[in-house]
Specification:
49% helix, 23 helices, 11% strand, globular, alpha+beta, 460 residues, two-stranded antiparallel ribbon
């Protein structure tokens, strides 16, 4: 980085560290990426300068105004001047303006806490908008009147208040409430939700920011949980919306640091009770939400469609939502190994399901943190059955039937599934025993075909 700053200075320019890395350094938080901004350096001169330094680059961003260094966690942006040419948030002409002042560039950022810059060569911090004071007060405040130009900044505020424990400035909340979300792309939205779940410390605070800014209506599945009351004996914390916020705060304390695993579980925590608004009824004088787990599939798919196009991720989350009460149900019912195997087959990862169930149980203040005996029991059984982090592998395969003379076709699938169901029920363990079961099944099938009065067609 210093090499780049010195090269720019030799050419009459200035490269400054900006944004999140400066903010995190002030807060004494670790960071691994650097965002740089180049002043008084023309785009072509910047390219040649980086080339002379032996750096390989890719230009990205609107009007290719951002340079990414290959193999290095460094982005270099040129100050940009945007001119509105229409009503939509994409209707802007974007031109790099290397002659823009540091103060004007700061005003074009999203929040004051991200508008602080640092000149490594001079050792000087520039903070024209009072971002350091806002950090000290834990306040989230928009940088300037240009804030509404990019609606994504509202979702960025959501994840920032969750990560840093910030209180939004009332003026910023008012601005957010007047911004339309409808034109945002799924990809950009997903990245902000991803940061909320993977980096948020108080994720519930981020959700409440959506609510006060009026953006919860962008997610009607979540909005429906506001005011959806629950039985106070089980949920003294309040409605489903309040419970969901507490569940996510509990989830945040037990993240694994594996982004993909944490993302699946975090999204399942967001969605686990989306079926309650449609199922909550007074039954015998008490609030009940019978069947809310299965009823949660449709709103979960609808909600996630607003966040991502990753079908596999959506399916993984839905599995956890539909079965999120199973740890307690199986434990209380004294379920056997077959039920645990079948659960592993449905959810694919029992360890993920247990994480959702733990967060659910602990998201009910002022009740003390649950001891989660049911989760410990289920994990122990899953470990013993070797299905803690995977579905039971099929021991009998289609090729085993073909090797025994059956012609390829639909019947093979039926027989393989019959063997798998028997495997889940504990009829056999290990591949050798599975093949013996298959041979016995085929003998019975052959006997049925040759029995007097037989139609000649085996019952599958």
């Amino acid at each position: 980085m210093l090499q780049i700053c010195r090269a720019a200075a030799e050419r009459g320019g200035c490269v400054r560290v900006v944004g999140g890395s400066v903010r995190d350094a002030i807060l004494d938080r670790p960071f691994t990426e650097f965002d740089l901004e180049a002043f008084r350096v023309r785009p072509k001169k910047l390219d040649r300068m980086l080339e002379d330094l032996g750096l390989r680059v890719d230009r990205v961003g609107r009007a290719f105004s951002v340079v990414k260094l290959r193999g290095v966690p460094v982005d270099i942006a040129l100050p940009r001047r945007e001119v509105s040419v229409g009503a939509g948030h994409r209707d802007f002409l974007v031109d790099a303006d290397p002659d823009m002042t540091v103060e004007e560039a700061a005003g074009r950022r999203d929040y004051t806490i991200n508008a602080i810059s640092y000149d490594p060569l001079a050792g000087r911090v520039d903070d024209p908008l009072g971002g350091r004071a806002d950090l000290d007060r834990r306040r989230l405040r928009h940088a300037s009147h240009r804030f509404p130009e990019d609606p994504l900044r509202v979702l960025r505020g959501m994840q920032l208040v969750a990560r840093f424990g910030l209180e939004p400035d009332p003026g910023t909340v008012r601005l957010c409430s007047g911004i339309d979300w409808r034109e945002l792309s799924v990809e950009r939205v997903f990245e902000e939700w991803r940061k909320l779940l993977l980096r948020g410390i108080e994720i519930g605070r981020g959700l409440r920011f959506l609510q006060v800014s009026g953006w919860l209506q962008a997610y009607p599945e979540l909005q429906a949980t506001v005011g959806c009351e629950q039985d106070p004996e089980w949920h003294p914390e309040g409605d489903v919306w309040t419970h969901t916020a507490h569940v996510l705060d509990a989830f945040a304390t037990e993240r694994l640091g594996d982004d993909e695993e944490d993302l699946v579980v975090g999204l399942a925590c967001v969605c686990h009770d989306l079926g309650k608004p449609a199922t909550t009824r007074f039954v015998d004088g008490r609030l009940r939400s019978r069947g809310h787990e299965a009823a949660g599939e449709a709103p979960t798919r609808s909600f996630l469609a607003r966040l991502t196009n990753r079908r596999g991720l959506v399916d993984d989350v839905v599995r956890l939502v539909v079965d999120h009460l199973k740890p307690r149900q199986l434990y209380q019912g004294g379920a056997g190994d077959a039920a645990v195997r079948r659960l592993a087959h449905r959810v694919k990862r029992i360890d993920r399901l247990v994480r959702v169930a733990r967060a659910d149980a602990r998201g009910r203040p002022p009740l003390p943190p649950a001891d989660c005996e049911d989760c410990d029991w289920l994990l122990g059984r899953a470990e013993a059955l070797r299905v803690r982090d995977q579905a039971p592998a099929r021991l009998v395969l289609g090729r085993d039937l073909i090797a025994r003379g059956l012609a390829p076709g639909p019947e093979i699938g039926v027989l393989v599934d019959r063997c798998y169901q028997a495997q889940l029920d504990g009829a056999f363990e290990g591949r050798t025993a599975g093949l013996r079961f298959l041979d016995s099944l085929l003998r019975r099938r052959a006997a049925t075909e040759t029995a007097p009065g037989s139609s000649g067609r085996a019952e599958p």
